[in-house]
Amino acid sequence: MATRIEHDITEEENNKLKGPQAGPRVFQIVYRNLVVFAYWHLAAIYGLYLCFTSAKFATIIFGFTLYVLAEIGVTAGAHRLWSHKTYKAKLPLQILLMVMNTVAFQNSIIDWVRDHRLHHKYSDTDADPHNATRGFFYSHVGWLLVRKHEEVKKKGKVMDIYAIPFIGAVCFVLPTVIPMYFWSETLKNAWHITMLRYVMNLNVTFLVNSAAHLWGYKPYDKSILPAQNITVSVATFGEGFHNYHHAFPWDYRTAELGNQYLNLTAVFIDFFAMIGWAYDLKTVSEDTIKRRKERTGDGTNLWGWDDKDLSREDKEGAVVLYAEVIKEE
Fold it and tell me: What transmembrane ranges does the database entry give (predicted)?
């Protein structure tokens, strides 16, 4: 059963969360990170080539399965559970999500949660680790290649973190060894397809920080950079409804309607809620959403929203139709 949160953030409350605005800055490159990221991406490109030339089909399917599990580990675990506490999870689900998140290996859960809470509290300012006002490349991956801004360091020290890290070799070693042991894949193929899967997970997650802060519509809050980006939502299993998420970060769906076919993460959480492993799922009432859209949205509301006879299925269908219109324009 989901719990509806009736609280609607006022402009005054929202302004209190704003940090210092971005200014000119000389970047200090971390060359070790630059070399590591360059190798990862070159190895991933080679892994993609091997998928079409010599890799076994079982290895490709195995890599894709790990990609899905790892991405949900980030979206349902590090993001919706530990960063925002949009729902509660019993121990078996917590362990499962920690393992899945480790396959993605985007630093420890503690680091991920700290950076993400900074991103929300000081969104698109100097205290935001991946400040989108500094451009696509910086918000996508550049922030990991340079020294942290002093505001990020200062504000990061006061963030409250409650998470249990689980870091291990399961991101690289097991995904490489399993294909070699069980279906005699070569080390070259197994390793480079592991790198392909890993880099895909990284870049898809990074798109939420970059593309979803630069392109899309803003029906909930036109004053912020985060936007509704359908393409990012598909790639990240529901994380691209970003204008909604920044307006209502406590909603476990990260989207107004759930949009189950574009939001695999919500489906995942709903399934475990059904079997009792997830509970206290938080959502936002339709009235609160409507008031926020009328007060701060850019006017791109869904057609027929006020029609009391419109079913939930019709509303969800309108999301896809609206996305197609935006794409054509």
Answer: 29-50, 57-79, 161-183, 195-215
CA distances to 48, 60, 103, 187, 196 from 55, in Å = 10, 7, 21, 10, 12
* Whole-number pLDDT of residue 135: 85
Taken in order 250, 255, 256, 262, the sign of the CA dihedral is negative
Strand 278-279 and strand 2-5: the pairing is unpaired
The residues of the chain scoring below 70 in pLDDT are 1-27, 147-168, 258-261, 301-329
Q: Which residues contact 190 (CB under 8 A, 6 or more apart)?
A: 59, 175, 176, 177, 179, 180
Burial of 143 (0-12, 13-18, 19+ CB in 10 A): buried
The DSSP bridge pattern shows strands 88-89 and 2-5 to be unpaired
Count other Cβ atoms within 10 Å, centred on residue 65: 12
Residue 172 to residue 155: CA distance in whole angstroms? 32
Stated as kind and residue range, the H or E segment containing 284 is: strand 281-284
pTM for the full predicted model:
0.80
In this structure, the strands spanning 2-5 and 281-284 are parallel
Token pair 């009792």 in the structure block, residue: 276
pLDDT confidence of residue 13: 43
CA triple 46-36-265, angle to 5 deg = 75
Distance from C-alpha of 325 to C-alpha of 315, rounded to nearest angstrom: 15
Question: Do 163 and 113 form a contact (C-beta atoms < 8 A)?
Answer: yes
CA distances 139 to 34, 206, 226, 240, 324, Å, are 15, 8, 12, 15, 27
Measure Cα distances from 297 to 44, 174, 204, 235, 293 in Å.
40, 47, 27, 25, 4
